Structures are given as structure tokens and as C-alpha cells.
Amino acid sequence: MTAIQGKIFKLKGKIQHYAWGGYNYIPHWLGVSNSEQKPCAEYWMGAHPSASSVLETAAGDTVLFNAIKEAPGAYIGDKVYNRFGELPYLFKILDVKDMLSIQVHPSKTEAEKGFDAEEAAGIPIGAAHRNYKDKNHKPEVMVALSEFWLLHGFLQPDLLRKVLVSVPAFNTLLPLFEKEGYKGLYQHVMELPQNQVNTMLTPLVLAEVQKKKAGELNRSEPGWWVSKLYENEETIGDIDRGVFSIYFFNIVKTMPGQAVFQGAGVPHAYLEGQNVELMANSDNVLRGGLTPKHVDVPELLKHTLFEGITPDVMDGVVATEGEKSYPCPVPDFGIGKIELKAGEGFRHTASSLEIIVLLDGAMQIQGSGRELQAKKGEAVAVLAGESYIISAEAGGVLAYRAFVPEL
Fold first, then answer.
1. Whether residue 287 lies in the annotated active site
2. Which of 78, 166, 174, 247 could disulfide-link 222, Cβ–Cβ 3.0 to 4.6 Å?
3. What is the free-text note on the cofactor (predicted)?
């Protein structure tokens, strides 16, 4: 095992080229070329085995996943390792150009059961129809970096009734909702034969497309997002049943610095914009539409929280000088927004491995035996137990800090 020299390192993440991503935001932020015009959807920072970050050390680049495996106490701290057995979070920058799939994440208990069942069935981890890639839950929090839109949870009962009454295509669904509630309604539309989905939704989709062309819709209305899905289609074939969710879920607008937490069972989908996202170190996603990926409606329904939600959009609270925090009700991760003017500083002692990513500006970070300069597009890893000081350089700094709350 290579001896660790210092406790503060530059960290290099990995771009994920998913089809829904934009082409410019992440390359511009990183200061790299995208001459091939690949979609750049996510930038991963963490120790997920499928795309681990790399630490820049005096001995050369070190894969973070391997380093933690070799010396967990030194990198993430004994308490974190004893509790989780790994770095329990995955930190990301997202650029959402096209809508993501309707999805739900399982609880920890259900993820363990689902993983074991698929292992026993002999389904390969990389199989397209595999639901459970690991035994972990996947709560997540996002903080907007731009105006950011998402679907989050079912509308409250009165608001959903209003939709079922005001949208003619849904009038026949109102008695079902009154009798069988959210689960009965959602299970019905998600299990409808495709020809009935088409009969119900095709006239609605065509009408919404015409309204958007006429400038009669805005992003706060379901029809705007339905139109975005279909307005460039020369012919409209089978309608994606994810369209129901656009009408039945809350459409949430967040502005830069505002955050939304999404726990197990809450159905959601990102619609448009850029954000910083922090989640448990998992890749378990149960999908219900708006995607070419594997959709498993029975499994989705099994884990969905069938109740109305009023979205909690967090502005953040001042935790310490120079940082706002966004409280999340999970032990796996915490997130803070560091915003400093030139000459201002932030002091902290890392209780776990921390990742600090710079969205704008430049900073100096000084630890017990090491000092680094970092700028926009760069990230820094601070090992467990290290005390450090961040100083903003000319123009100030905007950064986000991922950590494990003290156990």
C-alpha cells in the first residue's frame, strides 16, 4: 500500500454521456473541448466502482475507489467505514436538456431484497432489464445552478381533482380516483393497454402541441412539457404513458441556490436545467416512462409513495460563516453551499472524506501540511480528520461541499 502524503488533493471526476444531456454546459464549466459534440449529461465525483474519481497525488493519479479499499480509515474515517463500508455518497453536476425518466428509488430494505432476488434469478448486473444494481437505497438532493424544473410527487388531492375535471381526456378517471385513491388511479393508467393509452392521450397531445406553437403555454403547465416531447415528431405513434405523470405530479420550479430532497418512494423526474446533485452511492432506479430504458411498472408501483405532496423547496440555512446547509433526513450525506467574497474565508474539520467542487471563482485551500489553488471546474478532496481553511481569491468563490454528517 502506498503511503499517503498529505490530506488534500485535486480530484478528477468523469463525464457521463447520456443522451438527455446538453452539449455545452459541462465542457464549458470544465474548460474542455467537446469537438465531437457528445451529450454531456453528468459529471461524477466519488468512488462509485463503475466510474470512480481519481486523486492527483505526489505519487501519481490514484483511483479513489481503490484507495478507500486499501486504507478506508485514512481516507473516509473509521466511523464512516464501520457504518457504511464505503464512501456512502455520489456527487454530480447535471445538465438536463431533455426530460429524464419518471422514476422511483427503493428503500434500503427493499433494495436489499430486490438485489438478492435478481442475483438468485441469475440476472447479470449489466443486463438492460435489471432493476437492482446494488443493495443500497438512493435518496438524493439537488441544488439548482440555473432555473431548474422537475416533477416531484403527486399533486395534493384537491389539485389532482381539478386536473381530472379540467382536462376532458381525464374526466372518466375522476370516479376511479374518488373510489380507489392515488394507487388505484395510477395503477390503472400505468397498466392500460397501449391502444387505450393512445385513444385517451393522442387528442390531448395534439391539442397541447398546437397551444405551445401559439404561445399559449408556459413551463408551469403540463402541456408545455408534453409538447416538448412531441412537437418535433413528424408523426405521433404510441404515446408514452409517462404523459399521465406530467399531469398528476407537481411541476416544481427552483432558482439557483434552491434545493429539493427526494426520498425513497417519491416519484419524480428532472425536466430541464442544470443542478448539483448528491445521492447515496447507488444506481437503483425503477422507471415508469419517458425513457427508452427498461420500464418495470409492477416494480415501480410496489415502491411508489401514493400520497399527495407539497414540495419543500429549501433556500438553505446558514450553518457556519461562509456556508449554507440544506438539511437532509438521511445519514449517508450532507451538502453545503460555500459562497465567499474576495478575502473571506471558511474554516472546517472534515469528519469524513469531503469533496468540494468549484462552480465559479477561485480559492486557496490550506490544510495541516498542504496548500492548493483551485478554480472553476475543479474539485478538491479532503480526507477524514483534516482541518482546513478556504480563502476566496479576487472575484470570490461559489462552491458546494459534499460530506457525511457526523455519526
1. yes
2. 247
3. Binds 1 zinc ion per subunit.
